[in-house]
Specification:
- The chain is of the alpha+beta class.
- The protein has one domain: L-fuculose-1-phosphate Aldolase, CATH 3.40.225.10.
- Helices cover about 40% and strands about 15% of the residues.
- A seven-stranded mixed β-sheet has the order 3-2-1-4-7-6-5, with helices on both faces.
- The site of zinc ion has 5 residues, from loops.
């Protein structure tokens, strides 16, 4: 995939996450730049998430420095840089402010996979128990350590969430279903004791983590929102 296509894809991802209410005036999506192991694309600090385009996707190195000195990177860049240093399997990272997912942490309620798509979080969604901004290397490293070698997401108590995946479309997909599962889980907590997917159900539903699924959900939201910068598959 060419760099222009990746910028288009990251911009569309941010815009669609904002459309869905998972990102607001802040929040960010990054991805590794293929062939340049130590640099990333990320949306610029000041770009309005409801209106940004590919020109607002800037380059940053793995120390969090912009490659163009006039560009301004997000203050919570450490979420991204620490995760990429720790996880060679991860090519895309999203920092979200998803309302229901975050509310679960504020209520002290465990995040459980209750929907079949929730099985993509079979390795758990732990709570990072620090509501401060992740604006230091130490905090970024603490986020990465809590994700560990396999997890796809964590909740930042009183703040938001971090989702990681192998591609931008996969990170979009996981972000959508992190909040979707949280919505049903929160409803279940209101009614009674939620029933989490059983061990064998978690196994059976691993079909949900596949490229055709990422593409289907991506296409659905591109058509629904009309947000498409020309990032052909
Ligand atoms: Zn944040």
């Amino acid at each position: 995939m060419k760099e222009d296509q990746i910028r288009n894809e990251v911009a569309a991802c941010v815009r669609m996450l904002e459309f869905l209410g998972l990102i607001d005036y802040s929040g960010h999506v990054s991805c590794r730049i293929p062939g340049a192991a130590d640099s990333l694309f990320i949306n610029a600090w000041g770009a309005g998430r409801h209106a940004l385009g590919p020109g607002d996707i800037i380059k940053m190195d793995l120390d969090g420095n912009p490659l163009v000195s006039t560009d301004i990177v997000p203050s919570e860049k450490h979420i991204h840089t620490s995760v990429y240093r720790a996880r060679p399997d991860v090519n895309a990272v999203a920092h979200l402010h998803p309302p229901v997912t975050t509310a679960l942490s504020a209520a002290g309620k465990a995040y459980l996979p209750v929907m079949h798509h929730g099985a993509i979080f079979a390795d758990g969604v732990p709570v990072y128990d620090d509501c401060r901004h992740v604006n230091t290397v130490a905090r970024g490293d603490a986020v990465a350590a809590l994700l560990g070698p396999r997890r796809r997401a964590l909740i930042m108590r009183g703040h938001g969430a971090v989702v990681v995946a192998e591609s931008v479309r996969a990170v979009f997909y996981a972000s959508v279903y992190l909040e979707d599962n949280a919505e049903k889980l929160a409803e279940a907590y209101k009614i009674g004791q939620p029933v989490a997917l059983r061990e064998e159900e978690l196994e059976l539903n691993q079909w949900a983590w596949r490229e055709p699924q990422f593409q289907k959900v991506w296409n659905y939201y591109q058509e629904k929102t009309g947000i498409n910068f020309g990032d052909a598959a």
